[in-house]
Amino acid sequence: MRIRCIFLRRQQYKCFIFSLSLLVVCLLKLVHIKATVKNSFFIEPYGVTANVYRVQPPAYDINCSAIYQMDPVEVGKSLEIRRKDIVDLDDDNIVSLTSDCLGYIQSRGYANLPLSNEERQFPLAYSLVVHKHASMVERILRAVYMPHNIYCIHYDRKSAKSFISAMENFAKCLPNVFIASKLESVQYANITRLKADLNCLSDLLGSKVKWKYVINLCGQDFPLRSNYELVAELKKLQGANMLESSRPSELKKQRFKFQYMLKDVSFEYQKLPVRTTHTKAPPPHNIKIFIGSAYFVLSREFVSYVDGNPLVKDFLAWSADTYSPDEHFWATLVRVPAAPGAILQSQPDITDLMSRTRLVKWNYLEGSLYPPCTGKHLRSVCIYGAAELRWLLNYGHWFANKVDPKVDPVLIKCLEKKLLEKQRLMVKLASR
């Protein structure tokens, strides 16, 4: 009997110790969650980010007008936020958010966008070549979306399943958004990146929407003009195209004078084109090579000329084993005399600061051509910060690269807010 009592007391003691340990662990976890929430910033504008993680984060009342005016207090708030752990919705969250199409469309305001008659009569097309971060793709799509425009999404065949599901949900929920009929496994600086855009362009030409211009975007771009403003700017082109086109330096000529082969690498890109010792034959049809960037704003007539043209087909085949062919393909074709809206070959270079397609800030030109980056750099390119809001909106370009909510969520929030305000104002004035 005594032995049995001793055994029971030991068991009770063990239960007590276990319960006490469990209580301590729960308390520590609660303290950790509170500390994490306190030191986190949950990205808007979804209004559901915090709910997804079942927390109540501290509120930040950001005054975007004050940030535009470079108010030091408001800019300081954005810097404080950047020091926190920035929490965004992951791809699975976006899949869940877009699974209820009606709820998604209503929550993100797709159904009541301000739109003028001038815009309706001048529809635009977009080619979005993306591969990760569904939440950022959604922000870009929402920022450029209008119900009369048309949008092609090309996702990388290597993308995560949840990302692909999110892209397919966008196409399911929005009637003027579709997935490219042919998908590439995109490799960095390879012909596959160019083919991704070409696949979308071909599909867009076949759509029922008779768009006037097409614009290509990647996953770190963001508009700097409302749709109303952009249409007004594009009308001024009168059928011309907007993109970079410059004469190549001797260093840049190496990109297409030699053959390049894809080789496996052990870091971010997995495969990279590596130069071989084999020199290439001259370009077909005596084409004179110009260089630029992958970014373009092209007229429908120019895209129709490119689609199925024997010269273009031969030039594409010749470019297949060059380095980053998308950075010479469009810049060269826009100089072909027979191309609609062609730029004369004798015309001076059109640089990135002259072309309004993309505002990119390079670290080695900061201080001379533009003010220093207030965000951070990635491969010499600035990822913009909130303190650059005014500069971005006033410089004159139509889109910016690069933006990243994990670097500065306030900038994206303020760009969204400012563009929507401008759209509403322009439509209101046009209706008078």
Report what the structure shows.
With 432 residues, the chain is of the alpha/beta class. Among the domains are: 62-88 and 359-432, no CATH class; 250-333, no CATH class. 44% of the residues lie in helices and 13% in strands. It contains 17 helices and 13 strands. The chain has helices spanning 2-38, 49-52, 64-68, 72-82, 91-99, 101-107, 117-120, 134-144, 161-173, 191-205, 227-237, 250-257, 300-306, 310-319, 326-333, 389-395, 409-430, and strands at residues 40-42, 85-87, 124-130, 150-155, 177-179, 213-217, 221-223, 258-264, 271-279, 297-299, 376-378, 381-383, 399-401. It has a 5-stranded mixed beta sheet with strand order 5-4-3-6-10, with helices on both faces. The protein has a two-stranded parallel ribbon with strand order 1-2. A hairpin with a 2-residue loop joins strand 11 (376-378) and strand 12 (381-383). It is globular. It is found in: Golgi apparatus membrane. Keywords: Glycoprotein, Glycosyltransferase, Membrane, Signal-anchor, Transferase, Transmembrane, Transmembrane helix. Pathway: Protein modification; protein glycosylation. Pfam families: Branch (PF02485).
